[in-house]
Amino acid sequence: MQLLASAWDAIAYVLRILFDYGLWFLVFLTILVFVHEFGHYWVARRNGVRVEVFSIGFGRELFGWNDRAGTRWKVSAIPLGGYVKMYGDADAASTPDASVTTMSAGERAISFHHKSLAQRTAIIAAGPLANFLFAILLFAGLFATVGQPFTAPEVDSVTEGSAAEAAGLRSGDVFVRIDGERIQRFEEIQRVVQANPGKTLEAVIRRGEAEMSLALTPRTTELTDRLGNKRQIGVIGIRNTKMKVVRHDPATAMWHAARETYMVTVGTLRAVGEMIAGTRTTEELGGPLRIAQMSGEVGKTSIEAQIWFVAVLSINLGLINLFPIPVLDGGHLLLYAAEAVRGRPLGPRALEYTSALGLVLVLALMVFATWNDLVYFKVVDFIGSLLG
Predict the structure, then answer these.
(1) In which domain, by residue range, is 180 found?
(2) Which among 37, 52, 61, 160 is annotated as catalytic?
(3) Are residues 371 and 289 both part of a single domain?
(4) Could you state, in chain order, the average pLDDT of each consecutive group of 10 residues for the chain (388 residues)?
(5) For the whole model, what pTM was predicted?
(6) Is the same domain home to 281 and 356?
(7) Do strands 174-178 and 181-182 pair parallel, antiparallel, or not at all (unpaired)?
(8) Is residue 37 in a domain?
(9) Is residue 211 domain-resident?
């Protein structure tokens, strides 16, 4: 009986985390899911596809309404995603319904599965693309109103005994490129250096009127963020304290927003690649509990921080959906690529197998990320102490 009570204590602890942070998590996630699914919906409608359901969440419907085009817009009980069900779909994963082979000409005209390969590709790709465009708009809005943090890529001071001093950097040097990436702001130097601890980077600097190349090897240090997450980053030991906030005109803001989105995308893909290669710990991979915690923490800060956080989350949602895993958008696009090569779609049995494999992979990833969350919040340690 004591064990049962203690297990309920552990469950109550997790529920308390969700209660403390869950509201902001639901607000942010609902916005991003709506943007993603609206991308699918809008392009589908432009291509003459009838959309039967637009759902925020999964499972039992909580409330909803029908529009004049016959689409059921609804909010469902499990708020961890959403879907658009198009005419001809058997389920939320766009598996072809059995009726697609016997549809009339009028039904085929509004069926997703009877559209051309290019049209289906555009409809599926529109979801992730909407997330990237949404992030660009959010960044651009911030840069045009609040402004963008800007520090010239110039070295003010070099720390004695640092990697920068060992490489020959001096005060007054201006970074032009690092690791093949053109540098416009000091913040971009920091981003590249932090992402490459222990890796030798080629840096092109301007000293006076001349350009020269240097080999920089960032030294490894451990960073603990304000949420308690620890990770290994690179440092070289340079400073520039002349940061200012620059407000851009709309066109320039869009350019910098697109560049910021690109930088976040590259950084995220690099981190995933390092996890796959084993050079970076997978403990950083968080699930819904960790995202809920971050959402709650950001929700207590400024509106600017909230917008920035939503933009980064939108980029990550777009990227995740582009992973070549069946049931995700990237998996569908991979199947369409195979169809383009073969000249015809895969057979029903192959689609069934790939869908099952994709579902297993997605569930495994969710279980792994949730396990990381439970370890991070020490729920596993707590339950282990009860059983030990």
Answers:
(1) 151-246
(2) 37
(3) yes
(4) 52 65 85 96 95 92 92 90 88 76 87 92 96 97 92 90 91 90 88 86 91 91 66 86 88 94 86 70 68 79 90 92 85 89 77 71 69 59 50
(5) 0.81
(6) yes
(7) antiparallel
(8) no
(9) yes
